[in-house]
Design goal:
- By secondary structure, this protein is an alpha+beta fold.
- It folds into three domains: 1-98, Alpha-Beta Plaits; 113-187, ANL, C-terminal domain (GMP Synthetase, Chain A, domain 3), CATH 3.30.300.30; 198-383 and 409-740, Penicillin V Acylase, Chain A.
- The chain has 23 helices and 25 strands.
- Strands 8-7-9-10-13-14-15-16-17-18-19 form an eleven-stranded mixed sheet, sandwiched between helices. The protein has a six-stranded antiparallel sheet with strand order 20-11-12-21-22-25. Strands 1-2-3 form a three-stranded mixed sheet.
- α8 (190-199) crosses α23, α10 packs across α13 (357-364) and α11 (289-311) packs across α14.
- The radius of gyration is 28 Å and the shape is globular.
Length: 741
């Protein structure tokens, strides 16, 4: 303990408290074990530490260091803070120097106090300490309506990606130190704005002579919007915003929305089609012709039903509204095709490449296609027997050979996602996290924001924000924030009972179509489940988690119906209110099976991910700590990972030493109830870097080769806010820049 105590020296020889001793212990451990920090930490110590409540759901760890040691601490501050935030999970670590404020001289004979000891100088110095190494480029005093003052601090945008998540903690700590309010903002970056505007596109579409035409004018018409591709963002998620006008019919609005999306994202649509089609045909070695004939039959049947729906008298029944919403989704899909063709110069080779009706159907329905291929081609179904006994415990006797590894890899790569819903212990907040697992060839992403003004359908949710892909009008992951107050997450389950495939029929509604209808219409989890169950295709079978934020009041007992869980297989959709389980602290989802034999296999083989969730969910106290858990992968050191890079919350198949796979976890989206009500989430695209894992790089990947048109070679990206507001700000800056030219 004496060695640890030298890392904290308090004024007047005071004894450190428990928190201060734990910080001192962390510094001592880093000095002993971290080669990068060892020599720099040898002569450093702190003067104190305290926890600061920034908000009901956010805490900061304020560490005070002696003023004379501030400069050597600054030398290693970024690396040190990163390591300390790992040890003190859920807390933002900030360092400030110990400074004393001296009162002004009361008598002429008293020496004048140094300028650095005045109240203003010390407060300014603390501001600099808090945001170091970011430079403060300006300060202003703003007055609120009630007459109170707030200090507005303008920060250099160069470090925005590194510190933006901490500005709330900076403000809370400054309030603790000074009793004064402060608001942090980032100055516009001229260089960044120029780069963004060069890659930012906006426009509108309107009907002329019965046809839609595109205009670069950013507003007006039937639909308008803006887009920036993922290759030009910090997160590698593109962002797309589309708004429609209520002066047009519902059918015209959704068609225009689809057209504008197809026009603005044409390059990415073609790239995504190339990547996914090549993956299905050349990598999966799947024959898609017969499955696609099934999809074409379904499309023909559905359009026939929509024609009949249009000829019927308007009705306000749940079934009629379901069909109205479903047919609007199909109409938007038609707009998407025609928008692409307009940008490309037709369905042929054109500017971007040929895309037929068949190609668009393939891209939009590829999630449903997996199950149809499994049904028609048994060789594509997961195998559980490669050199292994049917008894999963046989490996426990020492035969941990190919059989177990094969089954583990199959299970890790057939299920599509990890999801976690975490309730704060004091009931003040709900945190949501979702990480997608699939082939790395699918890493071409767009986060979409739709704002419809449908006057005939009168949907419960006219606005929706969701992670998605080029050429797809639904999430596919799924991760949705809806203006109805619903948050929907999903994880995928494979079908292991082959007899269920016999229930598949093209005279049904595909998953993506039913999801879009349910998202528009439902105002509760129960309603959402009822709509999903209509005309179940039995394809793309998932577990859906629907949280109704209207039934969540911070600090109050959870209301029934807050969390409704829905599960689909061919021939059956079941749902239940699982709020009582969430009240226990969390709900985790990672491929929940339906059948006893498979249940045994899954509970055995996926236990690492389940155990990691159970162990680490208690450390989620903020959106940031949720992001940390959902990106976590410490497979080389975490005993629960069993020495396998796929046995983690965010697995990396490309790191398997004896047979790398180009599959695994490749994105994360996080939000909270308070953010979701504002339709805001935070997302990053690409395989995780976990605990010091190497970034994924297509050039260095030695395993299975995959097409990756439109993607960066190296994935090393940061979380970024997914919000309509940020796109609107960028659009305004670009318009001002254009006007000034």
């Amino acid at each position: 303990m004496s060695a640890v105590r030298r890392k904290i020296v308090k004024e007047r020889g005071s004894e450190p408290n428990e928190l201060e001793e734990s910080v001192a212990q962390a510094l001592f451990d880093l000095e002993a074990t971290n080669a990068e920090l060892k020599s720099d930490l040898r002569d450093l110590y702190i003067s104190g530490a305290e926890e600061v409540d920034v908000s009901a759901s956010r805490k900061a760890l304020l560490i005070r260091v002696p003023f004379r040691l501030l400069k050597p601490f600054h030398k290693i501050q970024q690396r040190l803070v990163r390591e300390l935030e790992k040890k003190f999970s859920g807390k933002d670590v900030v360092l400030v120097g110990v400074r004393r404020i001296l009162p002004p001289a009361r008598h002429a004979r008293q020496s004048a106090r140094p300028r650095s000891r005045t109240l203003t100088a010390v407060h300014d110095a603390w501001l600099g300490d808090l945001v170091y190494p970011t430079e403060i480029s300006g300060k202003r005093i703003r007055y609120r309506v009630d007459g109170s003052k707030v200090l507005k601090v303008i920060l250099d945008p160069v470090d925005r990606a590194n510190i933006e998540y901490k500005v709330e903690s900076f403000a809370g700590v400054y309030k603790k130190l000074t009793g004064q309010d402060v608001a942090f903002e980032f100055a516009p970056s001229e260089k960044a704005d120029q780069a963004d505007c060069e890659n930012f596109s906006s426009g509108s579409v309107d009907f002329s002579g019965g046809n839609l035409t595109f205009s670069t004018h950013p507003q007006g018409g039937a639909a308008w919007g803006s887009y920036i591709p993922g290759r030009h963002t910090d997160s590698n998620f593109g962002q797309l915003t589309i708004t429609t006008s209520g002066l047009y019919s519902d059918s015209e609005q959704v068609y225009a929305a689809g057209f504008l999306e197809g026009y603005l994202t044409a390059q990415e649509i073609r790239d995504n089609w190339h990547n996914m089609h090549t993956y299905f045909v050349e990598v999966m070695n799947a024959s898609v012709q017969e499955p696609m004939r099934w999809i074409e039959k379904q499309d023909s049947w559905l359009r026939g039903e929509c024609s009949q729906q249009a000829s019927r008298p308007a009705a306000d029944t749940a079934e009629a509204r379901f069909w109205s919403a479903t047919c609007l989704a199909v109409r938007q899909f038609d707009g998407l095709k025609h928008g692409y063709w307009a940008a490309n110069g037709g369905p042929g080779p054109g500017k971007y490449g040929p895309m037929s009706d068949w190609d668009f159907l393939f891209l939009e329905s590829n999630a449903d296609l997996y199950d149809i291929i499994d049904w028609m081609d048994p060789s594509q179904r997961p195998s559980w027997s490669e050199g292994a006994s049917s008894d999963p415990h046989e490996d426990e006797a020492g035969q941990k050979g190919m059989g177990r590894r094969h089954r583990r890899d199959s299970l890790a790569t057939t299920g599509k996602c990890s999801a976690l819903i975490k309730l704060a212990p004091d009931l003040s907040e709900i945190y949501f996290g979702h990480s997608t697992w699939d082939t790395y060839t699918a890493m071409l992403r767009i986060y979409k924001h739709y704002n419809f003004n449908l006057t005939e359908l009168r949907p419960a949710a006219d606005r929706m924000s969701f992670s998605s892909y080029p050429g797809e009008l639904f999430s596919d992951d799924d991760f949705y924030l809806l203006s109805s107050g619903l948050v929907m997450l999903q994880t995928t389950n494979k079908i292991f009972n082959d007899e269920l495939f016999e229930l598949l029929s093209p005279s049904t509604v595909l998953s993506w179509q039913r999801i879009r209808a349910a998202n528009w219409l439902a105002s509760s989890g129960e309603e959402w489940a009822a709509h999903l169950a209509r005309h179940n295709s039995g394809t793309y079978n998932n577990q859906y988690m629907v949280v109704d934020l209207a039934r969540f009041k911070a600090g109050q007992v959870l209301m029934p119906g807050l969390l409704v869980v829905v599960e689909q297989i061919p021939g059956l959709v079941e749902s239940a209110d699982e709020t009582d389980i969430l009240a226990g602290g969390h709900w985790a989802s990672y491929k929940v099976p339906f059948f006893p034999r498979v249940t045994h296999w899954l509970s055995y083989e996926t236990s690492p991910r389940a155990k990691i969730f159970r162990r680490d969910q208690a450390n989620v106290h903020s959106v940031r700590s949720m992001a940390g858990l959902m990106r976590s992968n410490n497979w080389q050191h975490d005993p629960l990972s069993e020495g396998h890079p796929l046995c983690a919350v965010c697995g990396r198949g490309d790191l398997i030493p004896d047979g790398p796979l180009s599959r695994g976890c490749y994105d994360t989206k996080v939000t909270s109830a308070s953010h979701a009500r504002k339709m805001v989430a935070f997302a990053v695209n690409g395989p995780t870097e976990g605990h010091d894992l190497p970034p994924f790089d297509w050039r260095e990947f030695k395993g299975q080769g995959l097409p990756h048109a439109g993607m960066p070679q190296r994935f090393q990206h940061r979380f970024e806010a997914m919000a309509v507001g940020s796109m609107q700000e960028l659009e305004e800056r670009c318009l001002h820049a254009t006007a000034a030219m």
